Amino acid sequence: MSLWTSLEPASATVDAGSSTTVRLRVRNTGDVVDEYRFEPVGPLAPWTTVEPPTLRLYPGTTGAVELRFAPPRSPDATAGPNPYAVRITPTEHPEAVTVPEGNLTVTPFTELRAELVPPTVKGRFRGRPRLAVDNIGNTRLTASIAGSDNGDQLSYDIHPGSVQIEPGRAAFVKATLKPRRIIWFGAKEQRPFTLSVLRSGADPLPVEGTYVQRGFLPRWLATFFGVLTALAITFVMLWIAYKPGVSSGATPKVAAGAALAPSTSPSVTPPPPPTAAATTPPAEPDSGDDGGDGGGGGGDGGGPAATVTEEAPEETAATAVRRLADDDPGGRHVCYRAFVTGDGWQKPVCDGTMAGTVGSDTPIKALNIAVTGVGGSAANAFLHKDDSTDGKGQWSPSWTAVVADGEDNYVGSTEPDDPHMLGFAINVGTGEVCQTSRVHNFDWGQQGCVKQRPEFVFGGALENDRYLEAVKLTV
């Protein structure tokens, strides 16, 4: 080897978008005059220049070149240590190539860009914009998304609520905007809103958009119905005022000498209005007269009583667990069923069988649970929260009362506008209870078990952008 090299310093630090220099010292240790050509190699080569690019040295002499590093302020300049190298090729002995190596540390910087696609959305009951977040820094970005507007006129359902984005990549966040007040008639209204990208230790990045809320019925249709109603009222009033009177000139023919007795007719009472669905079977109809003896008829009986057909009772978790208790007195069992969004109540299942759905994008809104042999159950639902600020859902206001063995226990709600379930908690009076749950876009979790109350077992997720889709219970 006829060449000696030294990097001064061997390790350097530079900010992305700035530059720094490192001196490379070279000594000709051979016995002939030689010229050396310098060429940057490796990942940093596009940002490295050598001045001068060649150096001619006499034997025993030393020279130096400057390595200038200028990484751009872009995701390509990866934060952290980056190795670099310079290939030195002697003209006289091209086979004797030397490649000194060093280390350049690029400092991290964070920069992001966000935009709404589209910036203006329209709808009567909801709008669905998408927020594109681009990480144009050189380090991983973690951020959460929140929505706001003046006057709190909209509610926001944001999925996912937080993102992690690698340098040079982008993430898309789906948002559903729902107006808190429906416009039934009239012109559309513009409701400005803001989706903010929140990062720890940094100011929020606001992205403004507009939700154009349309009326449920257009203005011309409301005017049409108003005119039509006015015309109908006018017609009815005119009909009442000018309706011609009609009388008959015919008179009944009466036999001579006969007296006309006043005719009587029994009073007729209208039937009572139908009542709400009763909790007891309907009573047998009375077998007596139905009014109006009409003079004659004698006898004390009418026709046979009408047959009343009842609907089969609903199959609940309690009816299923009672059948198991009848077949296995003293045994421990749990039966349950799920109310699935868009499908309603499923049939009850028992002792570790799956309730709910897998892969159908339909959350569970309510659970119906019944136990036997465990001293009753109590439960609570963990629900989606529309206005969540920490990315978490919320518990129902209180636990259910302790429901006795063989009776139905309900958590959650089946009302269309009520939130779906993210998870649930349950306990029993004796022995233990176990759950295995599946959260949307995740596989089945580990089975969890606890002893009798006050301990309880939780299944599902706490994150507001997830939901419970299937569950298995055992006792």
UniProtKB/TrEMBL annotation:
Residues 293-304 have a biased composition (Gly residues). Keywords: Membrane, Transmembrane, Transmembrane helix. The chain crosses the membrane at residues 220-242. It comes from the Bacteria. Pfam families: ChW (PF07538). Residues 305-317 have a biased composition (Low complexity). This is Hydrolase.
